[in-house]
Structures are given as C-alpha cells and as structure tokens.
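#struct-pred

JT: dropping the chains for the assembly here, can someone run the whole complex?
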Amino acid sequence: MSREVSQTPDINKSDSPATETADSKKPANYKRISDDDLYRHSSQFRMWSFTEKNLREKRKKTNERAIGTINEKLRKFIEDNKSSLTEEELQTLRVKASPLSMEEELQLINFYSKKVQVIAQHLNLPTEVIATSITFFRRFFLDNSVMEFDPKNLVHTTIFLACKSENYFISVDSFAKKAKSNREAILKYEFKLVESLKFSLLNHHPYKPLHGFFLDIQTILYGKVDLKYMGQIYDRCKKKITDALLTDIVYLFTPPQITLAIISMEDEQLISRYLELKFGKDISNNTDDQENGVNKEVKEVNKEEEGGVPEKVDDKHEPQNDIELNKLLTIISQCVDLLEKSESVTTDDAKRVAAKNYYCQNPSILLQKLKRKLESSNDNNGNESPSKKPKIEE
Amino acid sequence: MSESNYTKEKKVGEGTYAVVYLGKQLSSGDSIAVKEIKTSEFKDGLDMSAIREVKYLQELNHPNVINLIDIFMAYDNLNLVLEFLPTDLEVVIKDKNILFTPADIKSWMLMTLRGVYHVHRNFILHRDLKPNNLLISPDGLIKVADFGLARAVPGPREMLTSNVVTRWYRAPELLFGAKHYTYAVDVWSIGVIFAELMLRIPYLPGQDDMNQMEVTFRALGTPTDKQWPEVSSFPGYNKLQIYPSPSRDELRKRFIAATESALTLMENMLMMNPQTRWNTIQCLESEYFKELPAPSDPADINIFSQKV
Amino acid sequence: MSTQTISGSLDEYDDNKDMCPICKTDRYLSPDLKFLVNPECYHKICENCVDRIFSLGPAQCPYKGCDKILRKNKFKTQVFDDVGVEKEVDIRKRVFNVFNKTIDDFNGNLDDFNKYLEDVEDIVYNLDHGVDVEKTEERLRTYEELNKQLILNNIERSKKDIENFSQRQQFEKEMKLKKKLLERQIEEEDRFNKEWAKKEIVNRLMSSSGNDTTDVIEGVKNTVKLKKSSARRKLEELNRVLKDNPYFAANNMGQNNRIKSSIPYTPFNGDRDLHQRFEVDETKYNDPLVQELEKRKDYIASGFRTDFIYERVLTEAFMGLGCVISEERA
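RK: done, full complex below.
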C-alpha cells in the first residue's frame, strides 16, 4: 500500500510558491494540501486511476495469467484422455475450448456490470449504493479473470458489500430472500472481493460533483439560466452518470471532469459559457502574463493565511483563475469522446462468450455435448439439449 | 502486503470484534500493532465496524490520525497493521502520577482538533471521540483512532442513528434522538474532553441515558427554543427539569485554572444549539491557541508515570 | 560628560534657551515655537526655520562655521534639554539597534556576554566623543552587514517579548483575581463554619446526656475540617498552576523555546485549500430539494445546515478537477 502521492504538476497554473521566507516561518510538519491534493490522497486516485495504457496492461496481465492456467489444464486434459480422444474431438477442443481473449473478457464484464445495475435497481437501492456495487464489481475483474471467477457468482456479493459499505445495512438473510439467492453464495467470495478491492471501499462518484456544478452554474450564470431547465438537465445527467460508471471512464478521469463532460453532452453551450466565465482569463489581465504571474505569487505568499489573522478570511474566496481553461476543455472533450464511443454488449455476444468461457474450463462437457450432437444427428434429430448450455439470464 | 511481513508478539487487548497484538514490522524492525478482526464470528459476513474502520483509515493521512500501515488477510481473518501507540489520553488523565500543565492541555487540544478537522475535511464523522480513542505516539503526538463508528457525512435525505458516541461524550442533540445531526457532534465530544483535561475527572458522567441528560443540563443549562430553535419539538423535551445556564463566573469557579479564552473556546464547543456550536475551523482559529502559554512541544510532554 | 565637539560653535548662540538663534523668534512671544535638532550636528533650530531653509532639499546648517549638510526629514524634536545627552541617547539607540544580541545569543555564557557589552560601550564612547569616528562607523557597518539575519531575528524577538510581557500581565491579573475570589470564599466558609460549629456544639451538648464535653467539641471540629476542603482544594490547585506558571517556564528555557515561538501559529498546518474554486452563495441557489428540508422542525432541531450540504457538494465538484490522471499516473 503505497501512500505516496505523485506531485506532478497539474493543470493549475501556479504551483505553490516556496519562497525561502515563507518556508522558514513554518513549523516542521507544515504541508499545504489543496482540495486537489486531497483527491490525490484518496484511494480512488492512488489505487484506481490509470492511464489507458496502464489499464490495458493490467487487463492483459490478468488475461494472460488465466489463459496460462486454462491452457495448462487443457493440455493436461488432452494428455490424460489421449488414448480415447478422436481426431474430431481434438479439433472441437481446439476450436471451442480456447480461452477468452482480453476483449472477450471485457465484453462479459461489461455485460454483467449492467446486470449488477439492473438487479440493484430492482432491489430499490439508493443511487450511491448502486454506483458502488457497479464500481466494486468492475474493480474486482481488473485483477481477477472471468475465467477464474464466474462473474455471475459475484453479482450479489458486490451488491451486498456495497450496501454495508454505504451504510445501507440489510441482514444477509433478508438480502438473500429479496435477491432470490442464498447466504452461502453471497458470502462465499466476500473476503476475496474485499481483498481484490485492496481494502479500498470509499468511492467518489460524480453525483455530488453534479449537485455542486448545478449550484455553481446557477451562481456564475446568475439570472441567465432557466431554473426549470436546469432541473431537467440535472435529472438527465444523473442517469448518464450511472451509465458512465459502467465504462472505463472512471479509471481515466476524475469525478469533476466526468461530470463536466456529461453535462456538456446534454448542453455543450451551457458548459462552455460557464467554464469561460469561470476560468477564462480576464481580458484586462491578459496583456502582461509575466507580471500577472509575479503578482499572483506575491499575493499568495502574503496570503499564507493562518498567522491567525481573521481579516484574511474574506479574501480567501476571491475568484481564482487557477485552471488552464484550454487544457480543461481538452480533457473534457476526450472524456466526451470516450463516453460516446462506449456501447453496450448484446445478449447474443454475451451468451457466446459465456459459452466459450464455460467450455474452456469444462472440456469434458464440451465433448459430451459433441457426442450427443453426433448421436442426435445420427437419429436425425437436430434439437440439441438446452439443459447443458450455460445459462445466461437476460 | 502479507502476514509474513509482521510478527504478533503480545496480545494487548481484546474487544468485541477484534484482538490487538503488539508486534514488529520485519522489514524495518519498527513496532506496530496488529488489529485482528474476528470475521468468522459474524453471520452477516464482514462486520460493519470492520468495514468502516478499513474504509475510512484507508483515506485519511494526517499526523494526528492513526496511520494504517497495511492490511492483510490470514486464516480468513482481517488484519489491520497500525502504527504503534503506547498510551492514550484516558490513561494519562487517570494516572495521578503524571503532572501536566495548561500548555500541555493546549497542545493536546490543538492536535486533537487538527486530527478531527482533517476527518471532517474528508466529509467523515467520527462519532466516538473520547479520551480512550485519542492515542498517543511515543513522540507525544495525539492520534485520533477507532473508526468503528465513523461514517461519511450523509446526503441531505439520509437518516442517521442517534445511538452513537460513548455516553459521557454524547452531544445533546444525540441525547434527544436527532436523525440529521452534523459535524457538531464530534465538536461537542472534544469540548467535554477539554473540560475533563482541565478538571482531571469526567465532566458529564451520566449513569445511564436518562441520567446523562440530567447531568448535562444541570452543568450547562437546559436548552430553550430561544437559544436552540425547535429543541422543544424533540420527543421527551417536556419532561425535562429546567436548569439555568451557568454564568461565566460560575464557570470560572469550576475551571479554576482556565484563562478567559480557554473558557470561551470551551463554551462554544459545548454550545447547546448544534447549529451555532463552533466547528473545528472556528475552534482552531480561536484566541486560546494564539495567547500564551504556547502549546507544549508534544515531545516534551510527560505521558508516562514519573517514578518519584 | 563632555560636549566639547559641538559646543565650540554653540556657545555664542546658546545664551537664550527660548529663542531661535536663526530667526530670533522668542518663545515668550510665540508660545507654539518648537525647536528641532538634526543628529548631524545637534544645532537647535526652530520649526519655521527648518521648513523655510530645508524644504527645497538638503542645505548647509545655518549655524556659523558648521558645514554639515542637513536634510529636513532627519530633524527631530529635542527630548533632553542637554544636547549632549540627546546626542548620546541617539547614538546608543543606533548602536543597540545593530548590536542587539542578548545573553541567549551566548548560550547564557555571562563572560562572553559581558565582553560583548564592553565592546559595544567602546563603540558608543568613540562615536559620542569623536574618537576614531570613521573607523568606528566602519566597524558598525561591517557588523551590520555580517549579522543582518541575526539582527532582524532579535528585533522580532524583542517585539515578541513585549507582547509576551503584556499577555503575561493579563494572565497574572486573571489569576490574582481568581485567587482573591477564592480567598474571600474561604473566609466566608470559615465564618459560616465557625457559626455552625458553635450552634452544633450547643445542640449536641443539650441533647447528649452526660457525655464528655471535650469529645463533643472534638467531633464537631473534625466535621468542620472535612467540610471546608472544597474551596481550599481549588486554591491549592491554583497555587500549583501559578507555581508551574508556563510564562516563567518559557522564559527560563532559553533560546530553543524562543526560536519555536517565533514561528507564527498555523491553525491548520497547511491542511486547507486557500484558493477554493468556489464560493457558497445560498442566495443564488434554486435547490428545492435541500431548501425544503431547511424548514423542517426535525432538521432544524438536529442542527442541519444547508451551508454544510452546499459546501460539501461544491468541494466535491472541484476536488480533483485539476488532477490529470493521464499525466500524473503515467
């Protein structure tokens, strides 16, 4: 558990100026922590934020590990049954019992994530609990492969843990009853789940940022926005946030960035007007960047608060143009692009992948099925027995 | 991140849901404490207190909040590896061989408030502040610990249980059964701890929940709608005995060594109305911390019995 | 004390203390007349003359034979009647502002400190009496140059000392008041106890049949002893606090403590965002869901505050807005 926080420069224009005089007057353990730094301290940032490349590598590693195990098992199965296997059976094994690719795994995870959402909604759980369920579920399958843990065995477990973690306690028995499951099945993987979540349980979902921006837009565009319209936007965005949680967006962007992207998908103009007024450079200050920067620094040193002078509290809230607007806009549009690209998995695709996942772990069943198929075609009966197919609910 | 990195040498405590061991981190040789959570005993899977403790400690990183070094699973038990903290404020207050000065009290209050301020800054309510949960490090730092009752600040429509905080440190709104309380409950607890540090005996030691109200209001006055709007809407309010609020002079007599600004801070932390009770920011900015004596350097405070 | 260096040319002017030697205005005639001197030569000139002569810039001293060039802003009111004293005081002030070490700077070594004080006295003497003026000035300048930081620190420190002093006075005043209160309380208790004891003894003697009188009296006295402890205990406690008085302790701990206390108090030790990207302005929000709750009795009584809700969601709206995962987590 590394608690170090990378202090790479962010899109804030001004790094905290560490002039010598300011430093030497501070106690030994003095450390400035901005709200952004606070987010950097969160386990969501430390453990569950990745670049696209890192995310891909992570999935690849998980996938390759599982493939290794499956292939080894298959090899052993073939070797053990070498004498009895026909050429046709070997061929079927090679084609149909092959392990899932990384993309196929992701399809299955996405499909089941949606299922988590539907079931949690069906259980009438609060929005945040649903969001946490989805998040837990998806995080579990970053380090675990669907070939190692059948996703359907984790659906209830993640929802149950999310309930407890979000202070929405339901006893396991009544939960089992409501969810039409049973105690043992729900609790079986709970430890494994918590461990895979790296014991990081607190999530920052974008719902609160949405509420915050809803207020701040009203302030910045005071008198210029229709309040009823704002209410509608708010409701639509809330739904879209839950959809976004079903994608990889949450690993790649921070909640405020995702929120702005989602609002701008609803009303691009609104967001660009808001951000322009909020973070756009004041034209009068635009002329002399250099001097502007210096003044700012001086101001910041003077403001180094806390000498306990109460008058300073007032100017604490003066508007700060600390965000590089263009960079922020770029981030938002990247986020929008990814959100628009994400598409849901069809049930057919999911069924196909689930079947493949099942057969590669259970080659003997695949062979039984082949045998039956051959028999039934000999009997001129084209119906295959549906009972042996892995079930995948709609 | 595994059990093999740590030793458990001595059992130092056992609670309802955990056993605490002293041990060493093998890589560094540092003393550590391992809190082993008896997960197997819970029929609802992982226990809520364990979940809370893990959830919040994972996020908090502050010199005055206990440091979670590591977590691991072993034999189906959850083990929290925590920094080693040899004593706590309750032990220090009770040990009459330990002398402490107003500057020491100020230092402890400062560290406690900074720790709790950080907890609040992260939108977390501690809900069980008491001397026993303010641990002290070998170098004298106060560490806010035990997040088994903590929870995130609720959304506006969520209901909270008022059955939190150890009785003597329970804020009046909790005694009344409030369901939408705020950070103010933690501030009240710190206010009671402050009083206890000055008196060296518990300030509001109620014998049971009913008696707690009696003791609280006898010491600080029964709240009225005037100072605390809608307090009379709580069920049970009408049955209360009415006591007057203590005058400043009465407080001066009770807290004989307290300066005026110490009393001001205490009065505002023990404000009946939770809406106007000071928050941790106001407390930290109070005159008490600016006036002399300056808070003691934590490392200079005696926290162990002095053999005479 | 000799004033020879400036007195030579002074004599002919100095016969009338209340007359400006330049314009000959007399204080008897104009009671508002104020005399100023300039530390360059300490020649007394009235305010009007200073205004007139030096308003346009530096000029030569109007005293006959004095070739000092004087600036208007250096003129000051004469505090001491004797210009010689005035001059020495000024020199001392100037020198001690630079040579401002205290015994703490010598880690309490009295010998070193005394030696240092002697050196400083030499400098004052030299400047006052015109001995090796140039060389001495040079010494002063060099020292100032070399010890700039130390000098500034000590200035800070003496400011603090003054502040500490007044706070300590305040503290002691408060404590004395408390002591008085307690003592009065104890007196009253004593008086009350005496009365009570008298009555009690009479009562008991009347009700007891033939018991030993001395036993009864002893018994009552013991009860009184137990009774009067509360206020006395507090007084003892207070005396203990005064004995351990942190103000005295702080002063005895020397340099280390001083350095620490020169760091300004920082309530949050940096754990606070100084430039939050928002401002809570409840007057501008239309947020029916939250605003509805604000009116509910159970919410009001619980201590519910809409500003807490707003502050929270706004913080979360901007918390992490500036973190770029693709760069920071790369």
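JT: nice. Chain C touches chain A at residues 263-279, 281, 284-287, 310, 312-330 (CB under 8 Å). Strands of chain C lie at 35-37, 45-46, 59-60, 69-70, 76-77.
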